[in-house]
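TICKET: design request
STATUS: open
ATTACHED STRUCTURE:
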């Protein structure tokens, strides 16, 4: 069953609408691209789809039901800036096992070294941190991954490796993925279809 958002509207306290009347749908095993100019609410939509924010209008449903309010969320979001998504006071082993304990196969596929586990976040590079964030998000109960510019700040080799892992999981686990990016060639290579977020109409 799909992950579906219908009629999504969101605005900040200033009163300006960031999103208005937005519909988007992802099917299991589908990779959908989301693009559009900066400032139109792509990251806000990602946060809504993953349950970090509640829309003021519309709703998000998984299998026809609201996202779970407690427990492990089957819709996981990975952010562009991994240093902002981790607790700087936790060692990497605690960050990694916050939601579940990844198996060795996943860690190996992401080139995560066991020697990194005892380090603090500021002792790792951006690419190393992003690998941890991705491993943390890819628990066995994850059915949809929202990838918000997750490789935009990384070198080409790390980008290729990360997307290889994601594509492999799409095929093995029928994982649905929303790829948010300004990189048109990347979206063309990865995605079954691409949706452009237009300026809000309200």
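STATUS: resolved
RESOLUTION: sequence designed for all positions
ATTACHED SEQUENCE:
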């Amino acid at each position: 069953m799909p992950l579906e958002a219908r009629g999504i509207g969101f605005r900040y306290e200033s009163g300006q609408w960031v999103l208005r009347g937005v519909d988007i749908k992802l099917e299991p095993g589908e990779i959908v691209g989301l693009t559009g100019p900066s400032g139109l609410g792509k990251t806000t939509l990602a946060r809504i789809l993953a349950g970090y924010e509640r829309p003021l209008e519309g709703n998000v449903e998984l299998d026809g039901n609201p996202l779970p309010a407690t427990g492990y969320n089957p819709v996981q979001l990975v952010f562009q800036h991994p240093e902002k998504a981790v607790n700087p006071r936790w060692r990497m082993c605690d960050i990694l096992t916050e939601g579940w304990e990844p198996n060795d196969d996943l860690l190996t596929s992401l080139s995560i070294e066991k020697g990194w586990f005892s380090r603090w976040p500021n002792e790792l590079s951006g690419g190393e941190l992003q690998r941890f964030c991705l491993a943390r998000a890819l628990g066995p109960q994850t059915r949809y991954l929202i990838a918000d510019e997750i490789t935009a700040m990384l070198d080409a080799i790390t980008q290729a490796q990360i997307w290889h892992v994601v594509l492999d999981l799409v095929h093995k686990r029928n994982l649905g993925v929303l790829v948010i990016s300004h990189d048109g060639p990347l979206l063309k290579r990865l995605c079954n279809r691409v949706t452009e977020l237009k300026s809000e109409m309200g």
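CLOSING REMARK: The longest helix spans residues 156-173. Residues 3-196 form a domain with the Rossmann fold fold (CATH 3.40.50.300).
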